[in-house]
Amino acid sequence: MRISCPACEATYEVPDRLIGTGRTLRCKACRHAWHVGPATPAAAPEPAPAPPAPPPAQRTDLPPPVATRPRPPQPIEPPLPRTESPPPRAGAALAAAWIGSILAVAGMVAALWVFRAEVVAAWPPAARLFALLDQAPAP
């Protein structure tokens, strides 16, 4: 679409898709702003109406249509009875998980104490921790 500024007559070529249903434009030359609407298509001549189609010929070699009967309604089946199963025993599994976790942590602490010389050799700052534990008063 070719657009010209109403103030300075500068012309611009703008694609129709950017204008859409209407848009405010600003001239780059004089900074004047104005509203541009969608391009009006050129009036095309209307096509002549098509002649009516002749009615279809009746075929006599076909048998007469068969009347269809509606389907009978399907019987509604009663829902199956619910069998209530007891909920799973989460209490036993949860208790076993806690006991296993506590045993794992206790085993790691015991391993650290038994192998403290190897731990200090591998990580020297651990010597301060073991020194603090050795100085702790016995209960």
TrEMBL record:
Regions crossing the membrane: 92-115
Location of region: Disordered: 38-89
Organism encoding this protein: Paracraurococcus lichenis
Domain called Zinc finger/thioredoxin putative: residue spans: 1-34
Source species, domain of life: Bacteria
InterPro entries in alphabetical order: Znf/thioredoxin_put
One Pfam family this sequence matches: Zn_ribbon_4
Keywords: Membrane, Transmembrane, Transmembrane helix
Entry protein name: Zinc-ribbon domain-containing protein
Transferase as UniProt keyword: no
Biased composition regions of type Pro residues, renumbered to the chain: 44-89
